[in-house]
Amino acid sequence: MALQMFGIPVSRGVAVGRAVLISSARLDVAHYFVDPGQEEAEVNRLRAARSAVRAELQTLQAELPPDAPPELAAFMDVHMMLLDDPQIGRETAGWIRRRRYNAEWALTAQLDVIARSFDDMDDSYLRERKADVEQVVERLLRALQGTQGLTGGVHGGDDLVLVAHDIAPADMMQFKQGVFRGFVTDIGGKTSHTAIVARSLDIPAVVGAREASRLIRQDDWVIIDGDNGLLIVDPSPAIVDDYRVRKQESELSRQRLLRLRNTPARTLDGQTIELLANIELPDDCDTALVAGAGGIGLFRTEFLFMNRSRDLPGEDEQFEAYRRVLQSMGGKPVTIRTIDIGADKPLDADLDYRDGEFTHLNPALGLRAIRYSLSDPAMFRVQLRALLRAAAFGPLRILVPMLAHARELRQTLEQLELARAELRAAGVEAGPVELGVMIEVPGAVLMLPLFLRYFDFISVGTNDLVQYTLAIDRADESVAELYDPLHPAVLQLLAQTISLSHAAHGWKGRPVHVSVCGEMAGDPQLTRLLLGLGLRSFSMHPAQILRVKQEVLRADCSRLAPLAQAVLAELEPEGQARALAALAG
Asked: What predicted TM-score, i.e. pTM, was given to this entire model?
């Protein structure tokens, strides 16, 4: 009898094949105390393992084929950086010296400490960076144990799928080389690096399937439905045949979508729609351009600061990263968000964890985003100066996250002017910028009449807006089913933001540009609703652009507007479902 499991769909398509099961190296870790006086010898084992892993990553990076996604090389850089992080090197050696743990035991003990700080993070993207630390530890454990890489000696044809607790992006070159046709992991989320690479490689993938690597056996037949996040183990021949037909149809659909890349995003009634890309790394610009993005709607700068609390990126380093993005986009608009990090997203794993207790009781409501930046004006102005310098190389929009208070608004404008003055005093050129505010909390929507007087554009972060409107912790699985972007309260706030922005005459005397950069923007099933609410600018992962564009090309905004208002008027689930069905039809 077939077994069905569900996970998070992160890369569309269907894969049918025999399971290749990869166990976690942490399952086989030996725990013992080293003899007194042998502590330094054990530390040297750890150092040797780090050197071996670094050499392995450097070899993999050097052997990347020319058509490899740029994300792969960048993520390998991240893993090499983590190898040198004191939290993995120095602190792990501390377990060996203080408690005489063997190196493997010390690594897993330190990983547990690091993991606790990540688990309490509110931002899904940064919370999933824990996977990068786990993947580095996996490599170190394999090096200590003298075992082969992730896939060992696996060789196969076109009918293999990989089942693992987790997969490092570096190991995913196996997919590019044709060894596997899809994969499933126990852990991970939509913004994990593994998911990002899977989308860039266009490989059917489901992550966060929890017990998959325990319940699926070696050589089981497995269907991976990357569209619906579904796994079917030991399916009947009829189901296999059905999914193979769906796979062929999916391939044809992808080919048709590629033809839309250079087609202007214009609705049937002539409305021009802006389709932008969300990126995490400067190298992601290539993927955005290939997908036909009209610009960058969100560049998350947190990546530049991660694991660097004692050595934050300086002005020149940040400037180079921002300049690269602007130059890569060739004159298309680029929106760069100031650092969104804080109590729930520590720069270093030991800053917010002391003696088994967190220093912030409610990090989701703590010192984060613009609050964090304003608490350290010197650091904030370093970033602002780098941004202003980069603005000389292309059209730049600076996005301020989590703003909710008039006081924060004034302080942000003051810091921006101070940064300009510092550049003038140093004789350094600063380019023109547009300044925008990110709407993430209900209070910011209610403050829009004030904000619209000072900002050039509005960007709605729907992920946080849903979370804070409904008081739902996205990381808490016990209430995850209550996280609903179609909740009437969320839709009312979103509609209010769009209508107020369009009606406003900002400080430049024209309507304020508004976009959505959360997951809602990249969901083709919500495109018609957002168009009907008046949205004309969407920002999403590059892999989602063509599917959203397809919906845009089929839409008539003049017909959708009254249907979207009917959705807004419904408060009961049944009525809303009927209104949404009419909108979709």
From this structure: 0.70
Clarify whether 193 is annotated catalytic. Answer: yes
Q: Which CATH superfamily is domain 3-236 in?
A: PtsI, HPr-binding domain (1.10.274.10)
Structure tokens at 583: 């909108």
What are the extents of the domains in the chain?
A: 3-236, 266-584
Please pick, among 79, 517, 541, 557, the residue that the annotation labels catalytic: 517
Active-site residue identified among 79, 165, 193, 513:
193
Residue 335: its H or E element: strand 334-337
Where b means 16+ CB within 10 Å and e means fewer, 357-389 reads ebebeebbebbbbbbbbbeeeeebbbbbbbbbb
Query: What is the enclosing helix (H) or strand (E) of 545?
Result: helix 545-554
Q: Which helix (H) or strand (E) segment is 358 a member of?
A: strand 357-358
Other residues' Cβ atoms within 10 Å of the Cβ of residue 495: 20
Contact of 71 with 196, CB cutoff 8 Å: yes
The fold for domain 266-584 equals TIM Barrel (3.20.20)
End-to-end CA distance of the chain: 37
Written as tens digits, the pLDDT of the chain (585 aa) is 689 999 988 888 899 998 888 766 555 577 788 899 999 999 999 999 999 888 888 887 787 766 666 666 777 777 888 888 888 888 899 989 988 888 988 888 888 778 777 766 666 666 666 777 888 888 888 888 875 454 444 444 457 888 888 887 666 665 656 678 899 998 877 766 677 777 767 789 999 898 898 899 888 899 999 989 999 999 998 998 899 898 888 888 878 888 999 999 999 999 999 999 998 888 889 889 989 999 999 999 987 876 555 678 899 999 999 999 999 999 999 999 999 875 444 555 444 433 333 344 555 677 888 998 999 999 999 999 999 999 999 999 999 999 999 999 999 999 999 999 999 999 999 999 999 999 999 999 999 999 999 999 999 999 889 989 999 876 565 676 788 999 999 999 999 999 999 998 766 677 899 999 988 999 999 999 999 999 999 999 888 899 999 999 999 999 999 999 999 999 999 999 999 999 988
Q: Using a CB cutoff of 8 Å and minimum separation of 24, what contacts does 49-57 make?
A: 49/103, 49/140, 49/143, 49/144, 50/83, 50/89, 50/140, 50/143, 52/143, 53/83, 53/136, 53/139, 53/140, 53/143, 54/80, 54/83, 56/139, 56/143, 56/149, 57/83, 57/139, 57/170
Same fold flag, 3-236 and 266-584 = no
